[in-house]
Amino acid sequence: MTKELPRFVLDLAASRPKAGQGVNRWLFRLARVLHPYRSEDEVAEFVRAQTVDCGRVVTEKEILRAIERSRAYAWTPGQPNPSRSTKPWPAVNQEQRQAVINEGYGLVDLWEESPIRFEDNDSHTEEIIDIIFPDNPLLCCGKSNTEFATRRRKAWRGRMVDLQLIVPNPMTQRTGLTQEGKESEHTLSNTGDRRFLVIEFDYGSIDDHAALLIHLISRAPMVLGVHSGGKSLHGWFYCAGEPEEPWRQFMNYAVSLGADPATWTRSQFVRMPDGSRKNGKPQRVYWFNPNLIK
């Protein structure tokens, strides 16, 4: 290895997360910035050496997958430092958004095309959560943005139908630190790897939102379509174990169609599937495709 590595690459290598705190995401980011400076065999050797003491065994398959997937997104020297820059979200392309809406699909179409349809008035929250979050993970759920807790899935059993909010990714521990340095059970620092990316449309009609989600289904695996009980529709897209960059591009496209970029944050609360708003209105599931979960 002859080329000297930039300081930010060395800093990124030294900032390896512990198990459950985004190891695969870090592997992808590290491999991405190493491509300009090392051959792929050398990248593998370097990355392998950095995974010591991360709290679990990082397999050769994970390392090689990160190198392969990051190849198309290799950083180019001279571009902004990828560890510091934050790309702005795109503006809404109203012409493109309207073209999708004009295809004529709506909420009824989303429901009729759903691989599994709930045709009764019962809540199916518990069975849905069991499928999308197996193995008793830590889940952060709440009645509101100020009344929430992080508990094992089993501790929530029987209570979820009365809740309106959930973080769509498992948590790594009960508490973490907020940006202000305060301990809390709902922070980005105690949120684990991305399991679902939720796309929320909240302006326009519900039929507009359904048309936009139907359009996105052709581009990514949507497991859930959840009505907020108010004015918005949430699409849960399954992305466990995938690198961030392709999903960031997908989010960019969704934002260009009018999606709220806030749900890109892994710790962002979204609507509990088949849960209840504070006013008692149900948050109905209009699309459910559990076969996409691996």
What does this structure look like?
The protein has 294 residues and is α+β, with helices and mostly antiparallel strands. The chain has two domains: 7-73, no CATH class; 94-292, no CATH class. It contains ten helices and ten strands. The chain has helices at 7-14, 23-34, 40-50, 60-70, 94-101, 107-113, 125-132, 153-156, 206-217, 244-256, and strands at residues 138-142, 148-152, 165-166, 176-177, 183-184, 196-201, 222-227, 233-238, 270-271, 285-288. The protein has a four-stranded antiparallel β-sheet with strand order 2-1-3-9. It has a four-stranded antiparallel β-sheet with strand order 6-8-7-10, with helices on one face. Helix 2 packs across helix 4 (60-70) and helix 3 (40-50) packs across helix 4 (60-70). The longest helix has 13 residues, at 244-256. It is globular, with a radius of gyration of 20 Å. The model has no long low-confidence stretch (mean pLDDT 89).
